[in-house]
What we know:
51% of the residues lie in helices and 16% in strands. The protein has 4 helices and 5 strands, in the order βββββαααα.
Amino acid sequence: MALKITLKPGEKMMIGGAVVTNGTVRSDLIIENRVPILREKDIMKEEAAISPTRRIYFVIQLMYIDEGNVGECHSTYWKLVKDVVSAAPSTLKLIDQMSGRVLNGEYYQALKLARKLIDYEREAINSVQ
């Protein structure tokens, strides 16, 4: 089944490893095969991975987009989640769910869970301040 994506003028997205930027008018793209896709709002640049949970999101993003380096990314991922669970055991349930997705190669679903983990971290930091 094809996926229809509507892009705003100037909006970017990643299709596979390619960054695509829309032109000056609204455009519809029809993706007819299975390929990793991230809209601009879901793309995290490396310099934005400034917290433990954001680094987890970034490494999952790399797994999703760059299948050639999944093994190296997995090693980094497991170290990062171990550190987060050690520092905040209350994250274990969410990290278990996310890790299950990672182990099954369901990286897009893992990214959605990583977004929740980032929100959890933000709320925890805000409650302390």
